[in-house]
Amino acid sequence: MKRLSISALCASLVLTVSAGTKLADATGYPISPVPFTAVKINGGFWAPRLEASRTTTIPLAFSKCEESGRYENFIRAVHPSESNKVDGYPFDDTDVYKTIEGASYRLSNFPDKALEHYIDSIVEIVGAAQEPDGYLYTARTQNPSHPHRWSGQQRWVEVENLSHEFYNLGHMLEGAIAYYQATGKRRFLDIAQRYADCICRNIGEGEGKLRLIPGHQIAEMALVKLYTVTGDRKYLDQAKFFLDARGTTLRKDIYLQSHRPVLEQDEAVGHAVRATYQYAGMADVAAITGDSSYIHAIDRIWDNIVGKKIYITGGIGARHEGEAFGDNYELPNATSYNETCASIGNVYVNYRLFLLHGDAKYFDVLERTLYNGLISGVSIDGGSFFYPNPLSSTGNYSRQPWFGCACCPSNISRFIPSLPGYVYAVRDRDLFVNLFVDNSAEINVKGKKLTLSQSTQYPWDGDIRLTIDKGSADMAVNIRIPGWVRNSVVPSDLYAYSDSLTPAYSIKVNGVAVDGTLDNGYFSIDRKWRKGDRIDIHFDMPVRTVKANPLVEADRGRIAIERGPIVYCAEWPDNDFNVHNIILNRNPKFTVSEPLDILGNIRQISTPVQALSYGDDGSLSVENKTLTLIPYYSWAHRGEGDMNVWLPIELSAASAIPPGASSREDNGFFK
Amino acid sequence: MKRLSISALCASLVLTVSAGTKLADATGYPISPVPFTAVKINGGFWAPRLEASRTTTIPLAFSKCEESGRYENFIRAVHPSESNKVDGYPFDDTDVYKTIEGASYRLSNFPDKALEHYIDSIVEIVGAAQEPDGYLYTARTQNPSHPHRWSGQQRWVEVENLSHEFYNLGHMLEGAIAYYQATGKRRFLDIAQRYADCICRNIGEGEGKLRLIPGHQIAEMALVKLYTVTGDRKYLDQAKFFLDARGTTLRKDIYLQSHRPVLEQDEAVGHAVRATYQYAGMADVAAITGDSSYIHAIDRIWDNIVGKKIYITGGIGARHEGEAFGDNYELPNATSYNETCASIGNVYVNYRLFLLHGDAKYFDVLERTLYNGLISGVSIDGGSFFYPNPLSSTGNYSRQPWFGCACCPSNISRFIPSLPGYVYAVRDRDLFVNLFVDNSAEINVKGKKLTLSQSTQYPWDGDIRLTIDKGSADMAVNIRIPGWVRNSVVPSDLYAYSDSLTPAYSIKVNGVAVDGTLDNGYFSIDRKWRKGDRIDIHFDMPVRTVKANPLVEADRGRIAIERGPIVYCAEWPDNDFNVHNIILNRNPKFTVSEPLDILGNIRQISTPVQALSYGDDGSLSVENKTLTLIPYYSWAHRGEGDMNVWLPIELSAASAIPPGASSREDNGFFK
Question: Has residue A191 got a pLDDT over 60?
């Protein structure tokens, strides 16, 4: 097995190898990521977020793993006993793996010997729990009377809690690979690889093997990653076996997307996180193997998601029940589930589809998810988390520092530090500028090493200066013109701008305006670039109104308000009236504030509305008010209360609570 | 064949024989009608209606039959020719038969030699068109190249316009029997009976016969009536054959209720008029044969209609397409079809179910239909007609003096004169007082002849004085306490009173209050009655509000307003604002006017509302107004314009048209 240099291995969360290295081709994607290790966030919107992740989220996650007995489970597995029951869920091991993964990304930028030592000691505990043949799943190992190995994969209903053996493998691999890349230490990777080998020996086609599929599809993504790291084809084959066997084993279940073979799937159904991991795994296998039938399948599913199943916040998985996608256009607001993990999965899928197709529309969805339904899952200080991310609330929602099922905090732990990896990408002599983030980066384009930087307050304004700080290259710089500038909310029939604005944009090179046309949503400037060259990008950033497809019942007669990539909401602390009992002006006008000293320097939006209520005499009252809006992601930082994203602009959607009643359900006349 | 006396045969439209005659038992119904010939309308609400029918509707119908070539068709049939095409529809003959039927009822009360002579001459023309074997269907006879006899019954799509051979028989029999009863003249009855014999010879079970069913089920009702008049069992057998064969022939079609055998039907589907005639025919056959399976089937269907498919006006058949029942709870307002003929059919069915079961709930539905969705079908002057009877309008609806397909005017011609037959009924020593109508009547109860009278302004107030004017009897007088007094809109889960009123009622005999309990909705006073005895009935008649089952989408957030049996609506001439753009007070208060000198001395209702609109600046305006309501049946007498029955009381149902826009669809913001 070929040993790679650590620097070459310091890759993004998503794909293992950096652009320009030999193994980049091993991923098969026509476009290569510029890994997060090559991009440094300097300031602007994201610097405080990444700092909060480093100083709060990851330490918190480790301490919660410790407090909640997640390490203890490994120790118990060393000495199996009837009296030792599983604490919590059988997939609790993965919170340890996911936090190691996030910490590893952090170690790349912020070397920290104490932290490294801490992780080394966890790895030793993890390794101790491994059975002689490589099996590593504390839920079973610590209690021999539990159902035998792999049984949870076969019998769904009876032993549901033992169905995460492959899920645990997936996150173990992701964490182990990240730690190996960050430190060069093989110990954790060896442990994980031995578990992978154990599964490859026991599961698959052929004599003596069990023909089983993972209940949760992280394994497929992780096995592809293990292949790109090790070059050992059997891991890729195992991932492909898992994908191809799905829908052909006895375990047919829409919840875990095994209702039919993956190539025949054309609608996003079932558990949303599992679904996105499956689609990401399919993209990874398709990129390497060149199998276009996989690509056609995920393209169809993507059309289904963005056309019929995604919230305007980028959230997916509308239903609480089964944490699942709903039916087409089933997008309730107060009860929307939108698990934070599903938003992360949605980023994975869209990123991969960009790497396959090079179309900006995937980054439109990614950016929408990122700035809204994903970061709403973590508080601004990095210390508390949402599991579901609803679009409307009458209270009873607040972020928690941890959950019994802690997938979301640990997924946030590993996602946020990986953010810099999404900013750029390269293909041959093309450089893609996908996100507008204050950063400096070192990028190889066709063997030329460049240092460049962005200076921007995006998403608060639409001005970005991109500078070549070092090096020169003959290349095309492809700047993504965001969907909200291209008048495309997402390329779908689900949402449309309902205002008549067409935001202008301009691009100057060294102060001189450049004309050009858009190709797949990118503005391309092809020339010889030299040190000191600068690109000034300007997007007009008006407040915009969006309406939903009328088939979305919950949004009828309502509009949502956006500025740039940010979806806004009305929340109780900023308004002295019930934010649900309003009607917007039919021709709404908006005012945008200067950056404020609250909620991480947000900008508020205000607009005249009418507050509706009933008088004691039963007649409707209408009072002129000013509604103040904040970015959706920043809600629920000031206590529980009313919040709303989709605001009534037609009477059919408006409500008016009579005096004394606390909610619409209590309002008297018709019970 | 037994020849009955003319006086005994002067019976109601519905059932041929009067109570107390021998053949009454032949109908098999446990309750016997008191025929319309025994009841004289003196004044009050109905006298002007019947007078309009006599002096306007029937003469108009005859003149339209003449003008439109309906007589000419019979003459053409005497001399068939390739060049003689059918004028209009193949069922145009029935308008002639139906008008003769209505005129016959009129002749009973208003002998008119000139009219009788006119009808005799029409009968001669009709008879001339009869083929030698009795076949009488001018659409075919006048043009030999038309498809052969009965073919329209077999092949639905291709020869739809020749499918009314049995329908024409049905109305011919109804008209001929009525004329025979009114005048004792057999000529028309003989003609019709010969056609019935022709059909009995050719259609049915057994060798040489065609196993066909009528496309339209009036034939079944009429053949039973022919049996009760003639005593010839073969007509009853033919009716039963038609019913039992339905759903078992090749012609399976939900439109004409042949999708399954009638005994297996449990939902009202397809063409509403055909459906009601079928259910009425089933009731008639069940009453005579005692076949309870027929009764169970129509009981199930009745539950379906009143629980899920009837409008608050009593209208049925929601869909324009196919003039058909919609799905359960499919009750749109602006597009409701509610054919006038279907309301008449609905009366037939409920009357028969009352005669079978003796429950007041059937008369609750009958009365609701009568005072609302049925008489809305004819103008107050008797000279113009509605085909559909919608519950909401933005204009484009006005009554017409005639239609190419003239079933509704001619059905009104025969129905209105029959109204007196629905007031009373008898069973052994029970007298039923079902409708409150100013009248005097001669009634046999257990062989005792009584003359009694009602004096009332019902439905404008709830005071009725019932007097025994002549005779004496030991009997139970059973007074129907209307559903709106019993707090039951109809005994269904479709509508409910949303106010908290419980209208009081009182009953006095000779000035002394009588206590009693209700049995099947009837207040029974069992005693020896003598000449001069009087019953004073009083119903409180408050304005009441009704809400629909939330499953009726079109009525959500709305209420309807009733007083007594009358459903009210808001119409444009009485209001100086758009009656659609209002919201009712949450605790609506109502004022009832004195009788007014408009629209036949109606009483109006008024209530404070708020008129909603948008100002030029896009903000909602709310203006206090008084909404004036009129009885639904009296709308559309003052030109075309806005009308609404279900009025918004919740914001979700309210609309507000911006200045300059003419309807909600034009209101700007979202196209």
Answer: yes
Residue A500 is predicted with a pLDDT of 87
CB contact under 8 A, B652 and A656: no
Q: Is residue A546 a contact partner of residue A495, using CB atoms and an 8 Å limit?
A: yes
Region A505-521: mean pLDDT is 95
Which of B621, B650, B669 lies nearest to residue A649, judging by beta carbons?
B669
Asked if B407 is an active-site residue, the reply is yes
- Tell me which of A459 and A91 has the higher pLDDT: A459
Q: Which residues are bridge partners to B427 per DSSP?
A: B430
Q: Do B585 and A651 touch (CB under 8 A)?
A: no
Name the residue of chain A whose CA is nearest to B652's CA: A652
Identify whether B648 is preceded by a cis peptide bond (ω within 30 of 0). no
Please name which of B312, B410, B307, B501 lies closest in space to residue B100, comparing C-alpha atoms: B410
> Average pLDDT for residues A120-148, to the nearest whole number?
89
> Which residues lie below 8 Å from residue B60, measured CB to CB, with a gap of 6+?
B382, B383, B401, B402, B409
Bridge partners of residue A630, in order along the sequence: A569
Query: Which residues 613-652 of B are in CB contact (within 8 Å) with A?
Result: 614, 617-622, 624, 649-652
Q: Are strands B566-571 and B642-644 parallel, antiparallel or unpaired?
A: antiparallel
- pLDDT score at A87: 66
What does residue A439 show for φ and ψ, rounded to 5 degrees? -160, 165
Tokens 């952090």 sit at which residue? A106
- The answer to whether the complex's ipTM is over 0.90 is no
Distance from CA of B664 to the nearest CA of A (A): 11
Closest-CA residue to B490 (of B293, B315, B262, B281): B315
pTM score, two decimals? 0.81
Angle, CA of A87, A90 and A91, to the nearest 5°: 115
Flag whether residue A309 sits within 8 Å of chain B, measured between CB atoms: no
Mutation for testing the B interface, residue in A582, A616, A670 having most B CBs under 10 Å: A670
Q: What residues pair up with B432 in beta bridges, in sequence order?
A: B425, B478
Please give the DSSP secondary-structure letter assigned to residue B305.
I
Phi/psi zone of residue B322: left (φ > 0), alpha (ψ -120 to 50 degrees), beta? left
8 Å CB contact between A41 and A60:
no
**Which positions ≥6 away from B39 have C-beta within 8 Å?**
B420, B421, B423, B424, B439, B440, B441
Which of A356, A376, A379 shows the shortest CA–CA distance to A368? A376
Output the average pLDDT for chain A: 89
Mean pLDDT of B486-497: 84
Q: Peptide bond preceding A608: is omega within 30 degrees of 0, i.e. cis?
A: no
| pLDDT score of B659 more than 90 | no
Distance separating alpha carbons of residues A177 and A173, to the nearest angstrom? 6
Dig out the tokens for B206 from the structure: 């057994």
Query: Measured between CB atoms, which of B586, B612, B670 is closest to A618?
Result: B586
| DSSP H or E segment with residue B567 | strand B566-571
The per-residue pLDDT for A79 is 85
Looking at the complex, does the CB of residue B558 fall below 8 Å from at least one CB of chain A?
A: no
For residue range A531-568, list pLDDT tens digits in order.
999 999 999 999 999 999 999 999 999 999 999 999 99
A586 → closest Cβ in B583, B608, B668: B668
Residue B623 pairs in a beta bridge with: B611
Backbone angles phi, psi at B122, to 5 degrees: -65, -40
Q: Is A119 helix (H, G, I), strand (E, B) or coil?
A: helix
Query: Rounded to an integer, what distance in angstroms lies between the CA atom of residue B644 and that of residue B629?
Result: 10
A651·B651 Cβ contact <8 A: yes
| A8-22, A141-155, B71-85, B540-554: range with lowest mean pLDDT | A8-22
Is pLDDT at B368 greater than 50 in this prediction? yes
How far is B653 from B556, CA to CA, in rounded Å? 7
**Residue A454: predicted pLDDT:** 98
Catalytic residue among B10, B407, B408, B569: B407
Q: Which tokens hold the place of A152? A: 């949870």
